[in-house]
Amino acid sequence: MKVIEKYNDSLHNPHWKFHLGPVVYEVKDTPRRVQAIKERLLEDPRFSLATAEIFPERHLTRLHPYHDYIRNTAESLRDGEEFYPDLFPGEGANLPRRVDTALQGGIWCTDAVTPIVHRTYEVAKASVDTALTAADMLATGSESMVYALCRPSGHHAGPRVFGGYCYFNNVATAADHLVNQGRVAIVDIDYHHGNGTQEFFDEQKAVFTASLHGDPTFEYPYFWGYAEEVGKGQAEGTNHNEPLPQNTECEQYLAALRRVVEAVRAFDPAYLIVAAGFDTHADDPIGGFALQTVDYREIARLLAELRKPTLICQEGGYNLKVLGECVHTFLDNFEETWQRGKIS
Q: 14 CB contacts (<8 Å, ≥6 apart)?
């Protein structure tokens, strides 16, 4: 399987340490995640690396109104400086939305834990370019399945605001790139609901979105991801959420995934995008499910049996001891299932 890697991942490495009351909270989203995945995949000669192409900014600007804000804020910082949005006036604020001052971050960001550093824009754009490179391979027919090793993640970044450690939405941009050639289905298997992705396509009937995630009654992003969210207007019925309880194990997870797969099959897309987070693993520091590494074999099999040209896009997964093996297990069995079906 072709693996598309970024060209500058190590340049975005904030301290990611916050004081929430008396608790020090340390985020695990570091360049070591990418390195752990690459090291494991390169042990297997069936995986080959290719560097992402550089795409024009228009692919970002048409979807992300905060594009210039992130770019301008990053450029205003010196190496070593970090800026955290910390004032959130809300949608009703009597204030023009400016992109030329960092202090306007609360207009464009949902939280105070998504920092911008000097190279954030550059690295976040490269993450989108990684997904777009993979999407192009599907569109041209040069590949039937591609893995985009994206970081930072993107599925919490939406059409109004960014947040949740996400700056630009990788899978949404890739879907927007593909949709003129045929309908697209996005299945998000990250532990956290892909609220940004859902909002991008809530009223677009040519893109089906589905997410399996920790129930938002107790898990981030709290305000999105409920089962009754099914799409709006002409797109009603093209969103499918599977909120799941804490400590969900494989059998319960697979039952939910089978419902998602049947919904995707009924939609009959031309392309499938998998937002592949592995913070569903039992040992992940910020997840709440009880999946084991071997369980990603069956998850991959069910998705591969859809037999659609597929972009697998990296989202979360923060335990460096298991992340590489989780990704390898998923990709290996996705390709194996695909090839077995092709032969038959």
A: 82, 115, 117
